[in-house]
From TrEMBL:
Xref: Gene3D superfamilies: 3.30.70.260, 3.40.50.1360
SUPFAM superfamilies xrefs: D-ribose-5-phosphate isomerase (RpiA), lid domain, NagB/RpiA/CoA transferase-like
Keyword annotations of the record: Isomerase
Keyword Isomerase: yes
An example molecular function term from Gene Ontology annotations: ribose-5-phosphate isomerase activity
Gene Ontology CC: cytosol
Subunit structure: Homotetramer.
Gene: rpiA
GO biological process, one term: D-ribose metabolic process
Protein purpose: Catalyzes the reversible conversion of ribose-5-phosphate to ribulose 5-phosphate.
Species of origin: Methanofollis liminatans DSM 4140
EC assignment: 5.3.1.6
Protein's UniProt name: Ribose-5-phosphate isomerase A
Enzyme class: isomerase
InterPro entries linked: NagB/RpiA_transferase-like (IPR037171), Ribose5P_isomerase_typA_subgr (IPR020672), Ribose5P_isomerase_type_A (IPR004788)
Length: 239
């Protein structure tokens, strides 16, 4: 098995495991990304096999399409402002359960859904786990303000680059009609302070730093043909 195949298998295993946490009658936030997609598929299978009633609140158009294809009843936060559980992936998670999200350009809606949830399951493969966050932070910005936001990021010690589209010319456009700035800061010493600083820049909708949800978060990590559940007291290996 190649490393890529092993990575996909880890995502599949942990996604399926997370879907096992869904119970009859739940309203569930459905994250965006490859690992969350495995959970969506399995939830749909459980709806058919076990005849459980589940409502899914997607965090992106893509997740909504996948949920409907899986046979999950889809709603939005206006209909279900309080969610029992959210299952979502992450770009990186540290030992204190600070998270970077936004690789799929859906982190604004993901943050709204996380905030509405009683419990959050973060599902990742082992490559996404680190002692300290160091990946670039996606920041959703109003197009009009992108240049100004990039200057502010520079004053915070970061380097901001507009994310370019794949199979299209020009910037990525989010489901909200905005741009994404990928902001590199190196190792992030104080994620909470950086999140606050980014979110107060004029023109920023929200950053991909999630620092306020650790108390209701469980991190499930796939790898080596199985998965494990991390606690905040675990010291995870550096990546």
């Amino acid at each position: 098995m190649t490393s890529k195949q092993a990575n996909l298998e880890a995502k599949r295993i942990v996604g399926i495991a997370a879907a096992g946490e869904v119970e009859d009658g739940m309203a569930v936030g459905l994250g965006t990304g490859s690992t969350a997609n495995y959970a969506i598929i399995r939830i749909g299978e459980r709806i058919r096999e076990e005849e459980i009633a589940v409502v899914g609140v997607p965090t992106s158009y893509q997740s909504a399409i996948r949920a409907r294809a899986a046979g999950i009843r889809v709603a939005d936060l206006a209909d279900y402002p309080e969610l029992d559980l959210t299952i979502d992936g992450a770009d990186q998670v540290d030992a204190a359960f600070n998270v970077i999200k936004g690789g799929g350009a859906a982190h604004t809606r993901e943050k709204c859904v996380a905030d509405a949830s009683t419990r959050i399951l973060i599902v990742v493969d082992v490559t996404k786990v680190a002692d300290r966050l160091h990946m670039p932070v996606p920041v959703e910005v109003v197009p009009y303000a992108a240049t100004g936001v990039a200057r502010h990021v520079g004053r915070l010690g970061g380097d901001a680059v507009i994310r370019e589209g794949v199979k299209k010319d020009g910037p990525v456009i989010t489901d909200n009609g905005n741009f994404i700035l990928d902001c590199a800061f190196g190792t992030i010493e104080d994620p909470e302070n950086l999140e606050t600083s980014l979110n107060t820049i004029p023109g920023v909708l929200t950053s991909g730093l999630f620092t306020e949800y650790a108390e209701k978060m469980t991190v499930m990590v796939g790898g080596d043909g199985s998965y494990r559940i991390l606690t905040r007291s675990d010291r995870v290996p550096s990546r």
